[in-house]
Amino acid sequence: GRGGGGRGGRGGFRGGKKVFIEPHRHEGVFIARGKEDALVTKNLVVGESVYGEKRVSVEEGETKLEYRVWNPFRSKLAAAILGGVDKIHMPPGSKVLYLGAASGTTVSHVADIVGPEGLVYAVEFSHRSGRDLIGVAQKRTNVIPIIEDARHPHKYRMLVGMVDTVFADVAQPDQARIVAINAHHFLKNGGHFVISIKANCIDSTAEPEAVFAGEVEKLKQERLKPQEQITLEPYERDHAVVVGVYRPPKKSEG
After folding, report:
1. Which parts pass through the membrane (predicted)?
2. How many C-beta atoms surround the C-beta of residue 3 within 10 A?
3. In terms of residue numbers, what domain contains 178?
């Protein structure tokens, strides 16, 4: 991947002031409290940055733990967390199908969150981004890179098991359909989805709110039941993240 481990060495950011790490309410996500607060994940590959991000080292007794700063301007998921999303549905040990993995920037943080017991199936169509993604997966063995078109999940059905959560950031006009067909293949009943929707990718002439509402309707028709929706201001313009449940068991409906 881009950017070796150079920047932000020991003691992490801004002149080695004392930094305290505290758990965020999303399990596997943390906050580094120092001169400035930062969202961080526990580095699965200590001593290395993935894309030039800063690292923060903290000593707990004898052990040295390292965390990577997670920039909300570079990650829709980080933006959603800082925007107060209620649930991300990726606790340690979970299996996530990540559609639109790009170069693996956010994927690397999801891999940190789900940890060594979890798995991230990362689908990316672009071969150029895919090369970086494969580089991320060489170090993070819980990432399985899949260089395929997410519109055709049958092409990678032999690689992907059933998952707990589908995350999508594909920025395609038929995104709802792409998520649905992958959910039908791989998402367990009662599993969850987290989708980033870029309004002008779907309809650049309509109001973003109308676009989001239309996408939510399409999801509902595919048994993907939205539970919350937030915008990503101030990190992204005209983006929303929708979180919900797939084919919820009957008793929890109503």
Report:
1. none
2. 11
3. 76-246
